[in-house]
Amino acid sequence: MVIRETLQHREAVRGGKGCVDFYHVVPKEMTDDYVHMFAKLVIRPASSIGWHQHTGETEPYYILAGEGLFTDSDGTQTKVGPGDVCLIRNGDFHAIENLSGTEDLSLMAVIYKQD
């Protein structure tokens, strides 16, 4: 089976700034009840995903390209780049921002249910 990614362009994601492109790798209708999202996210320059909480689910971000500022549940801010993993556990809050004025921040994100 071959699945083609689908693009969803979104503005002000979770109250963030600018735009984020969601390249859905596996469509929601093809995942089981445990996977909510499997996508590559491209956060455009000067854009972000706003502060929000995950309840009943976990979400790792795997940074592919670019440089970002990840805000963890306790408010700690950490610069992240290619090869870094940001782990958002059940109950955690988080946000991420593209620090570049010219380069995209790309990451893989999987949201799955946490029992």
Overall description:
It is a single chain. With 115 residues, this protein is mostly beta strands. It has one domain: Jelly Rolls. It is 0% helix and 55% strand. The protein has strands at 6-11, 19-24, 35-43, 48-53, 57-65, 68-71, 77-80, 85-88, 93-98, 105-113. It is globular, with a radius of gyration of 14 Å.
Instruction: State the name of the first-level CATH class.
Output: Mainly Beta
Named CATH topology: Jelly Rolls
Q: How do the strands line up in the largest sheet?
A: 1-2-3-10-5-8
Shape: globular
Number of helices: 0
| N-to-C SSE string, H for helix and E for strand | EEEEEEEEEE
Helix content: under 10%
CATH architecture: Sandwich
Give the number of DSSP strands.
10
What structural class is derived from the secondary structure elements? mainly beta
Instruction: Compute the separation of the termini in Å.
Output: 29 Å
Measured by DSSP, the beta-strand proportion falls in over 45%
Average pLDDT number: 94
Within CATH, the superfamily carries the name Jelly Rolls
* Main beta-sheet annotation: 6 strands, antiparallel
- Uncertain segments: none
What is the gyration radius calculated from CA atoms? 14 Å
How many separate structural domains? 1
